[in-house]
Amino acid sequence: MLKRFLFIINIFLVLLANAQDSSHNSHISTPIIITSNTDQQIISGRKNSTVQISKPYVILISADGFRADFTELYEAKKLQALSKQGIRGKYMIPSYPSVTFPNHYSIVTGLYPAHHGLVDNSYIDVSTGAFYNMGNKKMVAEGKWYGGTPLWVLAEQQKMISASFFWVGSEADIQGIKPTYYYIYNEKIDIATRIKAVKDWLSLPEDQRPHFITFYFPDVDHDAHTYGPDDIRVKKSVQFVDSSINAL
Description:
Elements: E1 5-9, H1 25-28, E2 32-33, E3 41-43, H2 50-53, E4 57-63, H3 70-73, H4 77-85, H5 100-109, H6 113-116, E5 122-124, E6 131-133, H7 137-140, H8 151-157, E7 162-165, E8 181-182, H9 191-201, E9 212-217, H10 219-227, H11 232-247
Parallel strand pairs: 1-4, 4-9, 7-8, 7-9
Antiparallel strand pairs: 2-3, 3-8, 5-6
Helix pairs in contact: 10-11
């Protein structure tokens, strides 16, 4: 089973392979089950099509703020070992501005910020005068701010189940679609709970099992911004991400 999983760590755009089934109206018009901010949100009534059940499983992981040299500098040994088994880029060239929201949404849409519309973590929308702010939970969940087609929307349009344990835009109603399984961003949810959720998703019956999953770590970004990249707390965050990905 592990050979069917593709792990993308921190950098690259994932392309969903050969998903051709486009008859999806009954798949996306079902009601959303909303509970509390720390509980899983589930859109009921969706299933993988027969064609999609045989497709690979992809987990897209972001370690936000994880500088290119941190893997060696701060002895992320599990990531070093993992990179030797797969493909590793020497560095990345971010979109501009090089901040969280524009770049993460570019990764899942393949578009520059000027084309998908999310041009900063916070910005004034010239046409309406509204101030988009990543800290405004109501605004973040409004699909109107997000252009392009993120990968979970593409998957769901083609009857492939998706899931998100955090990613920019994953809480929003983009083109009328959210991931089948997702969590509202909340840093109170501990890593063991997050890893268990992914394990549980991948243990579901095949027709309900997500083939595309996003997973986000804020830790390195928070500590590097707060204390500077040379601080011992950044090293601890790098090693936390390293051990967490290994556990996953």
